[in-house]
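May I ask for whichever protein you like with its backbone structure tokens?
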Amino acid sequence: MQMKESLDVRCRSIQESDLEMIMKWRMMPEITKYMNTDPQLTLAGQKRWYDNICQSKQDFYWVVEVDGVASGIASLVNLDETAKRIHTGVYIAEKKKRSLQLTMELQWNLYEYAFEVLHMEKVCEEIFSENKAVIRILDMCGSKKEGVLRNHVLKNGIYHDVVVRGILKQEWNCLKENIVYTHFLFE
């Protein structure tokens, strides 16, 4: 698979000056719709979160800049050094920057980082079962459905099933030989 054109994307470390922007993104209804919680965030809480991720050896977060504009978040979290697995997360808050190409290329870049920089054996995703668009994108990116956690998340009085997915290092090694994508800078 080959993408249309090269994207101008940079994934940079989150800075303390980003916290208010991230807080606003994270409370957007279209962003929280498919997340486990609907948080009422505060800057003090964001600062505690930021301090925790700065010290963490298991969680990696980046601000995704598209054409020089801060547009969303990409993450690799819950690194399990024993099992050599980690979970991905992506959201693009800036509607004008959202695209299938960006989402797929972000996912492939997260796989590349997890397997080739962090030396993981498996990358995992957990998605609400009703989030059909992301499930389809992950299918196209090479992730495989592994199961469903039924009534796994209670949110606003409603239980949600969660689809568990993953891609193994050997699957990534085969896949990357057949795709052409822009390699993003992670800093």
